[in-house]
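Appendix B: complex inputs.
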Amino acid sequence: MTASTASTPSTTPAVPTNKLGLTKQDYVGAKSTLCAGCGHDAITAQIIQSAWEMNIKPHMVAKLSGIGCSSKTPTYFLNQAWGFNSVHGRAAAVCTGVTLANRELTNVIASGDGDSMSIGMGQLVHMIRRNVPVVYILEDNGVYGLTKGQFSATADIGSVLKKGDVNELPPIDPCTLAMEMGCGFVARSFSGNPKQLNTILKAAFAHKGTALIDVISPCVTFNNHEGSTRSYKVTKDKEMPLQELGFVPYYELDQVEIPAGEAREVAFPDGSRLTIRALREDYNPMDRFGAMRDIHEAQAAGEFLTGILYLHPDRPTLHDYVHMIDQPLAQVSQEAVKPGPEVLRACMEELM
Amino acid sequence: MSFAPQVPSAPENTKTLINDFSVEVATVNGSGSQTANNVLMRAIFQMGVPVSGKNLFPSNIAGLPTWFQIRANHRGYAARKHDVDLMICMNAETAREDVAKLKPQALCLYDEPLKLNALRTDLNFFPVPFQQLVAASCPEPKLQKLVKNMIYVGVTARMLGIDMEEVRKAISRQLKGKQKAIELNSGAAQAGFDWADQNIQDQDRLQIIRDNKTEGQLIVDGNSACALGAMFAGVTVVAWYPITPSSSLVETLAEYAKEYRIDPVSGKTNVAIVQMEDELASAGVIIGAGWAGARSMTATSGPGISLMSEFIGLAYFAECPSVFVDVTRMGPSTGLPTRTSQGDIEMCAKCSHGDTYHICLYPGNMEECFQFTYEAFDLAERYQTPVFVVTDLDLGMQNWATKPFTYPEAKFDRGKVLDEQQLKEIQDWGRYKDVDGDGICYRTVAGTPGGKGAYFTRGTGHSVHALYSEKPEDWKSNIDRLRRKFDTARTSVPAPILLSSGSKRGLLAYGSSDSAVTEAIDLLSEVHGKQVDYLRVRALPFTEAVEAFLDQMDVVYVVDQNRDGQMANLLREFFPERSGKIRKVLHYDSTAINAQTLVDQINDFEK
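Resulting structure:
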């Protein structure tokens, strides 16, 4: 993973800074108010780490969420970014509006399985369909935490709630759903695998469309007991990383030698490269239908595959579909958007 | 007032009505009659006679009955006329009812095989052999159905004295550039005219005589006027979901944008128009866009506003500029989606959960549809809040004659937005700090550099520094400030218009009722000897002039096109001590409002 470590400028030897001269402290947020040991906090830590490593300008970030435990987390990272805690399940639409207004912003959505797979599923799939540029982190624990432990739509059949209820409904898998919708970046990770999550997040920041990352994040209060299929222990035991991932950011390409032939390489539009060394030889993240079949088979076998599930970095984005100008619409001058009196005259004459 | 040429000695129903009558065309939806009706309306308009057109159409693509009323009126009354003077029966299914509702001596032109003349003896019937005429003028059977309607345009032109040159002009205009269609339709109209010239006896009941009252005017629908308002207001993000009767607003805007909102260098657009998956998403997009600094809007109708209402509460509380145009139709539920209503007045005023009041604008004519949509963007950014432009199907989808719109010269009001430099100079900026005492705080938009402007926007309780707060004092002072902000808007919204005759009898109305109200006021004065002071309310919050009007009048008749008298209810809510003066005058049978019903109700109150 040396490839992804930011180089340290000689001027500030004491505290490491990134290419923008910012320390990691410049990427933190308020103190978390989630339960001690919550998987979401581990994800927050990797958002901070990866944004810092990727030299993301904090003031150019819109961090958005819906409602729920996961949706509280944007408060806990990137203090200097613009946050918007919107309504339940609908950060996707707000994000679509934000990126139409200012296409230069980097968008991060922190959502959960309730927020994304129940109330917000309609908006999520349409956001994917439009390929809205966003790093969409689905912090997935199989329960509603903030309303005290009801099943969510990602809960496995047979999973048992603390008070004894057994889930009988089949789960919705966010990843295969996203793949079905043609999402160009689909990954699954585990809050207990920070190294993998960090790499995936960095690659997601380099991706120009929707990057959906389903992160299994055990709920220590309502879904971490015996009988739960989403406890920390069960997830740890079942996790099967598909690949060993390496990420070479665009600014380090000339410093790193990428060994040819050993790993699959994917280039992002900014020049960054993701190296994928397969741990399961037969899994090809560029083959949508094959990958979907493999994921379904693994699920049937009780395996929990993590890593890059599907990549298609070149899809047109929302901005392409709308044929928008390059300048952020929020910054266009009045002169450019208010046609002159002669245009009104012409419109009037046409109606006479 | 202007002259009303009549033969004084003739009984009421045999007088010659010059430039003052209604023509109703009964056809089948999807039969292409809309083109013919618009041509007839335009031809009268081009004769210099004020005219309005109301399409009473079903929620259907083809097959169900539809009616189109054209009203010519030399005084410019544009409301629906209660009685039909010339009925054109082209629909066998409704012909009997259409004939039954006519007053004695009315004219009825009909498709000959329908044999309607057997139904009544007190009408003037004019059978027309449409099938023969259409076969003669259009050899291609495929096209016959399409041009059949143009025959009645020609026949009617001959009967009423409309210049065929104007009909031809209107056809060319309507079918712009489609030379073959123009020739075909002009031929059909001429065939109708020629046939009528030979076969129909001259009648002296209804006459169109050339006048000059439409000079410099144009014909437009309210949705197009709103679309133009938005375009000139520099709207940059539009998110919408199709719903009758609002869909044509965004579609028209998109057409204009293709021509006038393209960057000349890149050839790309500077207004993003996105059709969303539903109204919830549309609201989310425009709130996100407004928050990030764009001028954003959606257009919808009542059911859409219902779906958006959670997001609207967020936008109110989180203070995100956004413009919502509600082209109101009959509800609740799907209701009558193709019929007009003012049934969303209270919903828009208080849309969402908790304590909310929204700025609402109520355009009453085409110029105001344009102007108020334009101004809604300034108000939304000035007050950092959702702003509603409340129109209805009658304004939005019907054709209205109007003066050309005045170009809005003023610079955009982008509101209190701090840039990097201003932020540097401020010691302790708080997103929700009421520095100026007007309830409007200073905001920043995402992407502002300098490290000082970022804040967290949330729908949960927050302090003046935008931090999460459940403190009672934070909550109360914030929600009180939001009310203060709404009250401040009284100084910015369009003031009401007063038409005073110095009486103590008040009539208060808004929106599309205006045309019927002005006519009713003349009727009350001329027929019943009653003088009325008329106040047309154009916005919420109510300005001081509204309060003064309620003060000065002994009684105030409030005209609403809904069952519950929603504007009257709002007035009672804001001015409880004047409640006793308010009388509800209502029209809500799904037809466009007419003057006579207002006169009758007011007379009933004063019996």
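DSSP finds twelve helices and 13 strands in chain A.
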